């Protein structure tokens, strides 16, 4: 138990360190060029992230949760193919897209996305075998080296673009270390090797599960960035920059939630296989309730110190209203339990359910944020309200969709490619 808590802590610190390194780049942009530069950077991130996630087929989570046997080389071949497709799409968008796209920022960001995508699949091997200490140490090391490299480059050149190239080099180095570490153990157990079917059957099984998983991850990625579009819709590039800077509160919540999901996925699967779907759902609901109650006091703290803290960190031009901070802090505490509810659905292999929940949340974000902006709410406040609406809809929807069917409270995993009852 102590080792599991230590592993969770290390992965959480690693994810927070990665988020901190990303925030540090945003802070550098803010210091060098102000809110407009932050807006350009955030726009590129919002453009690239959904493309990469949509084309990845959710292979990392599938490698951990899919209740059918698919050999490793098929996972790897699919990932390399989808990375190539993503690169083609992004290059086309940068070359043929509007003039507002800053190509000098786009190319190093594209290389970072390519590296992260390849490393992500090898992280799945560490996650499935619960080598979480190595997982967390790699995250922490890459984050610290990235911060150091970016700082040195900015001090030497004064160029944020050069800093992004340095971050790209560090990202590739981290991916190489991840591949080497993950390869220390075979990707499949002896029992999984025995359960292999034909390559064509395994590809069909992977793609049939990967399509809804990929669509789910794409809509959840869009869900993170659609509020940014609401701000851009009703506001200026400066508003986008101020919102993006403050929204890192929700980004941190997502990364801590990702740490939780990393740790609990293998364990939730074990609970499901031993005690059934109903027992698992009851445990998840209890954990979500405890999490919401425990985090509630932080909302009050954020409302009191948030506006001052943003001005102190970024400068006077980045101050937000207390209402906007309230919405963002509520969204953050709603975001954390969604990863428990999402892990429940993944273990049940209900990938389509997660997709429809995410799609409903996007519609709610657009409608809620659109109405708020149309009735005169400031652009940043409208975007902050939109992200709260999206987080709440996602949490409620995922809990509702995890309800076991009355005649199937437990379904044995399938290893022969047959459809799953769950």
Describe the overall structure.
- This protein is mainly α.
- The protein has one domain.
- It is built from 15 helices and no strands.
- Helix 9 packs across helix 10 (237-246).
- It is globular.
- It starts with a helix and ends in a 21-residue tail after the last helix.
- Mean pLDDT is 81; it is low at 408-422.
Q: Low-confidence segments, ≥5 residues, pLDDT <50?
A: 408-422
Helix % is: over 70%
Number of distinct helices: 15
Q: What's the main sheet like?
A: none
Tally of DSSP β-strands = 0
Roughly how many Å apart are the termini?
A: 29 Å
- H and E string: HHHHHHHHHHHHHHH
Protein name: Lipopolysaccharide biosynthesis protein
Subcellular location: Cell membrane
Membrane topology: Multi-pass membrane protein
Keywords: Cell membrane, Membrane, Transmembrane, Transmembrane helix
Layout of strands and helices, then pairs:
Layout: H1 2-33, H2 35-55, H3 59-65, H4 72-96, H5 103-128, H6 132-157, H7 160-182, H8 190-194, H9 199-234, H10 237-246, H11 248-275, H12 277-314, H13 322-347, H14 351-374, H15 379-401
